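Below is how a single chain appears once it has passed through the pipeline. First comes the sequence as given, then the structure the pipeline wrote out for it. We keep one example in the README because the format questions we get most often are answered faster by looking than by reading.
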Amino acid sequence: MRFLIALALGTSLIAAEPVPVLAELVIPNGVAFAAAWDASPYGVVWHAPALASVRQRLATNRATMVAEIGLDPLIMLAQSGTIQLALVGPDLSGDPPPLVLTIAAGTSTEAWFTALAAKGTINADGSATLASDWILRREGSRLVLSSRPDVAKPAEPVADRAYHLTMRVDGPALTKAMFASKITKGDTRPADVAMVQRYFATILAGTADLTPTGLTLDGTATPAPAGMAALDRAALDRLPTTALEVAAIGINGKRLWSEVIAPIVERARLDGTNPEAGLKESGIDLPLAEVVHGLGGTWSLAVGQGMPIPTMTILSPSSPAIDQFAKAMLTKAGVGVPEAGTDAMIPLPMPFPVTLTVAHDARGWILTTDPSGAAALLAGTGWLTSPLGTVAAAKLTPTTCGLSVCDTKAQLRMIGSLMGIGVASAKDLTPQEKQAILAIPGQLAAKATPGWWTITDDGKQWHVASEGLGIGFTSSSLPVMAGMLLPAINMVRTSARRTNSSNNMRQIGLAAMVYCNDNDDQWPTDLVMVKEFAGGDLPDKIFRSSGDPTHPAPYLYIRPAAMAKSNQPVLIEDPACWKGKGGNVVYADGHVKWHDKTDAAILWAEGRRLAALPHAATTGITWDDWSAMHALIKASHEPQGKTGALPPAAP
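Resulting structure:
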């Protein structure tokens, strides 16, 4: 059978000319890509002991896919040749969009495609239609998976084999295809279409390379960016020399207005909106065009070391519009405008362990939480000669209009300190797990080098280049770390939510116990009675699970009989609140325990059965009624003895 399928696929050759590729992502060599990933900081984090449980869950999912399709897709990709994912045109109408995945044939890919075809229907042309309606076929030495029967083969991939990944977008062709399809049909004004056609063509394209220090990005977008201008070195030299991270952008206010803002304002006016009304409400009595023109110059942001809150410094150019805006904001804050060359402290609306100061001179405004104050930065600090500034200076050219640099090692040290605060309080992590999580920033720091990216404008094209762990507007390692450590962060966050839910349930349980003590050892009939007895001491939010606040009935009350045993369950949380991963249980002595997946499901099912018994609402459920659960309950915790008027624990 497999031989016949392979033979059928082998005859599926398409002689038609390849269609244009509107956008594509190409991995020139799957084997090299997999090896580079393992050696990169991202691979280091992925293989960290702290993510062992995440890797195990992925392995389980992959095992399921092996059972379904006969091969592990990740292994197949890691052993393949060139991989191309292409959006082809010119027709983008229909659902799904015209996507084509092409993989160079090899032992693993042959086995995978053969296994997929075995689960589909072989067509007359030798292709196979899968259950998802995607089409599987062979094109020479390549194996192809396409989203629709009418999708012809894409043009050969454009790949720079010196890099691990290539991205390409044909902006003009993609825009044309979008507006020729049903995607944009409907109430669309010609002005809107022209605006999208104009700006959507500016799409990043280029190459990316995984390295032992991070990711190197080199790409271009066309046409040149609207409204950008070369950076002012003198403005950058006013930044704090202690900055761990700096981002700067140059703005050409007149181009920004004519090429970007003016069309948007015109569209708003057609809808009956007055964009300038908000300016007057803020105390800026200037035309919007004049305000945008005044934005021209170099704007920069610096982040520095600070505990528990990093310091922030913002530098803006000076213009009549910016000066008027700044003075209006200071007046609203109750702060007098400082004399040129001096600074003023701005009161914060709530107490923070930082000070906020502002200063200005003829060249611009400085707003900072740096303890040295804003006035100290006016004269200039020589930032470009500092260690981080030296990295920036090496990247500055006369056409650089965007720049970001980051002291990645220092950022990682700061992240490690901040992580330590949260991880130390995580009650559901073992000491070994905490150590594994806290070791990750150090593992990355050992590989890290200063990260940077630049945007240059040669008047024709926009060139983007980047290197290091931080890829983004601020080139910060913070977003990258947040993504890579998300599983660990979620564990800490989940622990807090479980604790909150446990506290809510404990309050309900204690209210029921007080009722029992006040009513001759007779427990409340149901949770409604508990809430009425407590009056306003138990608000509605107490009866909501932190695992799923939308759950209509998250807690199951099993009324105990008089003189209940202390280790008898009284209140059980629906495991569905935690997606089946477990739930809290309140016992008759008032203590709460979290039960994992299997035990929680058993306790919930048995609790529902007992709560439905006729005597549950009259005399209550006894310890003997829980006989099927005795072994589980005794094994899961040590009874905590008598509470209030309750008897000792059951033997």
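Residues 213-252+296-484 form one domain.

See the next section for the split statistics.
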